[in-house]
Design brief:
Elements lengths: L8 E5 L5 H8 L4 E4 L4 E2 L2 E6 H6 L5 E4 L1 H8 L8 E4 L5 H7 L9 E3 L5 H17 L2 H9 L18 E5 L3 H12 L3 E6 L1 H6 L9 E4 L3 H5 L4 E4 L24 E4 L8 H9 L5 E4 L19 E3 L9 H16 L11 E4 L3 E3 L12 E3 L4 E4 L5
Helix pairs in contact: 3-4, 5-7
Protein name: Glyoxylate/hydroxypyruvate reductase A
Keywords: NAD, Oxidoreductase
GO molecular function: NAD binding; oxidoreductase activity
Length: about 375
Amino acid sequence: MSAYKKVAKVFVASRVQNLANILRTSTCDIVVEECSLSQNPENPTGISKELEKHVSEIEFLFADPDIIGQVLAHPRNKVKWAQSTFAGLDALFKAIDKLHQLPDVLISRQTGGFGQKMGEYVIGQIIARERKFDIMRDLQKKKNFDGSQLYSYRCLNSLSIGILGFGTIGQEVVRQCKAMNMNVWAAVRDERFDSGENLNHSVDNFVPMSRLNEMLTEVDYLVNVLPSTPKTRGLLSDKLQFCEKKKTIFINIGRGDIVDDNSLITAIQNGWLGGAILDVFNKEPLPSTSELWNLPNVTISPHVSGITFAVETIETFLLNLKLYQDGKELINQNPHLQVKSHQKIPINSNSISYCPGGYVSNTSAILTLLSIKA
């Protein structure tokens, strides 16, 4: 980008509480148009009724990734720039995957603040499990002062923890674990391990993904922070038996498809895993029929480990708004994608997907997020 570009109106469509109202009070330079997410009864899984009404007017969109995807997939959309409220763009890509040609649109995303929240989730869940907070609560309900079940526990400085995903979020999880004097392992891509690229020395043990089994046999807790990519989907499905040695507790705050449900359930039932703390799932909401709800030693939360706060994502949006109007590159602009296909379509550098050769494939291709380093 080079020339000045005026943004007069921004359409907001998000589940983030009070996003549009707070944005209105944060700037008077733009008109903020909030669109309801109420679904069209004739198309309950598609674009909302109000968004469809305005779709041909929307040039600038501030929305959740699945909603951005729905708008971009609409044939009448005229979006020039879309700012996502979340870091992960899986839902966006899923929505546009069937298009014959990628939309020529600028995408930027929110990343700040997630590491702190997700690290606190991990530490909080570990402390709650080790100190048996669930038993404490049950005893309180029964007005029972017998604490004998609570006498035996492990301090965090006696525990080893393995981190899958060593990007911004993973490194913050590591920092918080080291602050509790835990022994920290991290698994990274083989090429990153070989190059030593940005490998934080506060980690006690690094392993390449090709030797992931070594880490699985040595950790008390295993935390997944990886995004969903073709290389990460099902990564743990045939490996959880290696956790049997230490009865590892699996914490998933990355993406649910790191392991298929049947493999996870089998690992818990067979005692390979000592339990699981799950915030993300293959299918969300988690169906009421899922066996995971009733398995012993399983804690389930509804994808809340890294909730987006309105103030944080508005701060990023306003910074990007100024950059956009000044014709400069945006913060977290256009996450690079690795795309594989026989058909190649030339696009410009402002496209959603950019490759050094200036070409991307059609969206039936496999899209791999590379912006979040594993």
